[in-house]
Amino acid sequence: MEVEKLYTEILEAAVTEIQTARINIARKVNEAGIGMYWNLGKLLSEKKIEKGHGAGVVKRLSADLKLKFPDIGVSPRNLWHMKRFYERYCHVDPKLQRCVAVLPWRHNLLLIEKVTDDKEALYYAEKAIQLGWTRDILLNYIKADAFNNEKHLPKSHNFSEALPEVLAEQADEMLKSSYNLGFLGLTQSVKEKELEQRLIEKIKHFVLELGRGFTFIGNQYRLEYNGKEYFVDILLYHRNLRSLVALELKIGSFKPEYVGKMNFYLGLLDKLEKQPDENPSIGIILCADKDHLDVEIALQDINKPIGIAEYQLLLPTEELKNLVLKEIKDSNEEQADDK
């Protein structure tokens, strides 16, 4: 049995090394490509090539470059994108420049198209890098105005009262004031069980939305105590906090009784599941809406660490339809230009 355990540890370590190497190689390849696009854009900008009289130059340049380098995207449309990319970021804060330098090209094109404010662009670029957002997820966050929503919504929790100072700070960083579940593609209301099932079906997207460090353990996680059964909607583990994280989903607005139920679940998790070297379990209650003052009152005498956050779930049907049609149109145009 010890031999098997040793082998499992070796295998896991080897897989981690290979995955890390692959990620680093892909990142370096991407950075080299973005650097090339930046320099080509700089060349066109410094030579003052503009649409109109410069259209012929760019078209000819594209044709000649395709003959020499048929495997890279140098269509006229993409060359204009490169110039725009350089001019958009050549004078911004170096921190933003470093972020866009490691973003995939189509992510950058989306940011240029949708976001004009530098602070907002930095917010989305950092989140996309930290959480591994796909282009579709990034688009969804931009459409939901996550930058302004997160900036204005206060965080609701009792971490500073229920946890040691250092752990409370880490837990505060872990919790968001609002979560965007638009990746579920819902255009009509659903029941709590259906919402939970949708999240489990797209657990990879959901864990990315929660943030770095989360590992999925199970849904409807069974706890048995004193001859009775209890079920946590979703149970996760946070590697940095070294804490179990219980997540409860609520379709409607926040209600004070949700806190009591979560406090009870956390007590069971600490008694039945928490390992001796782990930190106290943490609860997150996701609601469609919450009143910050109501949450403060509900948490004031609770000794378990609990955070309450809102989620955005639905995109209006017409907006969703128009968004999808526009994305298909833009994608088809890019593919046609690159041929």
Automatic annotation (TrEMBL):
Output the InterPro entries linked to this UniProt entry: PD-DEXK-like_domain (IPR053148), tRNA_endonuc-like_dom_sf (IPR011856), YhcG_C (IPR009362), YhcG_N (IPR041527)
Q: Which residues form the YhcG N-terminal domain?
A: 16-148
Q: What region holds the YhcG PDDEXK nuclease domain? A: 173-323
Q: Which PANTHER family match?
A: BLR8175 PROTEIN (PTHR30547:SF0), UNCHARACTERIZED PROTEIN YHCG-RELATED (PTHR30547)
The protein in question is named DUF1016 domain-containing protein
